[in-house]
Amino acid sequence: MNDPKVQDPTDEGVLFRLDPDLTLHRMIERASIPNGVGWTLDNKKMYFIDSPTRNIFVFDFDLASGAISNRQVFFHLADDELGVPDGFAMDSAGNLWTAVCGGGKVLKLSPEGKIIGEITLPTRMISCPGFAGEDLFITSAAEEDPEKYPESVQYGGSLFRVHVGVSGKPQNRFRRT
Length: 177
What we know:
Oligomer: single chain
Strand order of the largest sheet: 3-4-5-6
Strand content: over 45%
Number of strands: 13
Radius of gyration: 16 Å
């Protein structure tokens, strides 16, 4: 992550892969603020967020080797929308739930990258959703610009719980050889 005092983040971020033999491999370079990584239910695609680009990228993923290829934009948050994609969680139906930091919401995206749901929250700085049963727990950060957005201050830094009626995707587990 970049220093929060840096107003224009640079593209010096890197996503590493840790193999079962504990070797590290550079997978993605020149990322500004890498903010989420996850896989489809069948582990054939990998999602990756680089927040300042407003993109959620999708890659072909080879489970046997851990290699990624064929980078494409899965979802782009429209330039006229407030905020940027931040952390995300996958549900057991294959949908991706992404926080929109600065936008005060969580978007539910279909496996095709279409918005199929939205949760609006009482603060702008939404950071990451995560599943516990059929509830989505949503973290937030303190408001970065309280003079401009005083209505966002009261609930900044709060944890929210919303019943969404679907459970999260089982977590991938690291296996050391």
